[in-house]
Specification:
288 residues, alpha+beta, Ubiquitin-like (UB roll), Serum Albumin, Chain A, Domain 1, 12 helices, 4 strands, isopeptide bond, Autophagy-related protein 5, ubl conjugation, EC 3.4.24.57
């Protein structure tokens, strides 16, 4: 898993607004500003969402460090894709943090099923099966809400001049033991994360179409391929499969723009094999 910042250079012309183009004064013929097609705009939006990243600051709980650990390395910083998951970052975190802090014996004895993260300020356990972008927005949103309710705190979050502040890293504490499994719901294994991802795809399919036929009809190779696109952060590999289940990029008609009507007796919750049965009811649905 390469967790470096992913950059994609978007042509300036694709981002121009209609009124931002002005022909030369001596131009004798009318000029029509070229506009990106509906499909191109959708593709651009998908690319921008895909390339979104969040800053993370990770440090090991000092109370859980065994004797012989190197306490000079306090924090590890990483710019991670918003669409990725904590289990996919564990190999990189082990290589650049735990293997350097712990001695060789303790590092080899460390098991991934014993590891878990909590948000530093609130102590809230970070769920393995939530995308990183969702975790970040959830924590930042809760913090903004608390600041809004507290006038003293909200004063520190406002500004009147100068550029907007940069994104603040999400500070996570890495624990090496005593994982609160009843709150995490799933373990840190990649297979469990994949099962949750596929369950979320199925539930998102149900929200869009009223059934899960598009996801359940995928071949095993396609199911593996769409997950590999997320795991490897490969936009083309992901959308090669996702294009089969997500809405098309053609401009919507007036008829198709209307939401489909479902009677209360026709709604059936899709099965999510290997996923917590309350996942859909809590609104933890991945809709891309």
């Amino acid at each position: 898993m390469n967790a470096l910042t992913f950059r994609h250079h978007i042509p300036l012309s694709a981002l121009m607004q209609r009124d931002s183009f002005r022909p030369p004064l001596n131009h004798t013929q009318s000029t029509v500003t070229p506009q990106p097609s509906y499909g191109a705009s959708t593709q651009l939006f998908r690319r921008l969402v895909w390339e979104g990243t969040i800053p993370l600051e990770i440090r090991i709980d000092s109370k859980e460090l065994p004797a012989g650990s190197d306490r000079n390395l306090e924090s590890y910083y990483i710019q991670a894709p918003r669409i990725s998951y904590l289990p996919l970052l564990l190999p990189d975190i082990r290589k650049h943090l735990t293997d350097l802090v712990l001695d060789e014996h303790a590092s080899k004895a460390l098991k991934e099923e014993d590891m878990w993260f909590e948000e530093a300020e609130t102590g809230q356990p970070m769920r393995w099966h939530w995308p990183l972008g969702l975790l970040y927005d959830h924590c930042q949103g809760a913090r903004s809400l608390a600041a809004h309710r507290d006038p003293q705190s909200s004063m520190n979050l406002t500004w009147t001049t100068g550029p907007k502040p940069r994104a603040v890293p999400l500070k996570l504490i890495l624990h090496l033991a005593s994982a609160p499994t009843e709150k995490l719901l799933l373990g840190p294994g990649v297979d469990a994360c994949k099962a949750a991802f596929m369950g979320q795809l199925k539930e998102g399919d149900f929200v869009r179409w009223g059934n899960t036929k598009r996801v359940t009809a995928l071949r095993k190779a396609d199911q593996d391929g769409i997950w590999d696109g997320v795991k490897d952060h490969n936009f083309d590999d992901f959308w090669k499969i996702a294009g089969k289940i997500f809405p098309t990029t053609s401009a919507p008609s007036a008829q198709s723009a209307a939401m489909p009507h479902h009677s209360s007796t026709s709604l059936h919750r899709p099965s999510s094999t290997g996923v917590s049965p309350t996942l859909f009811d809590r609104g933890e649905v991945l809709i891309v």
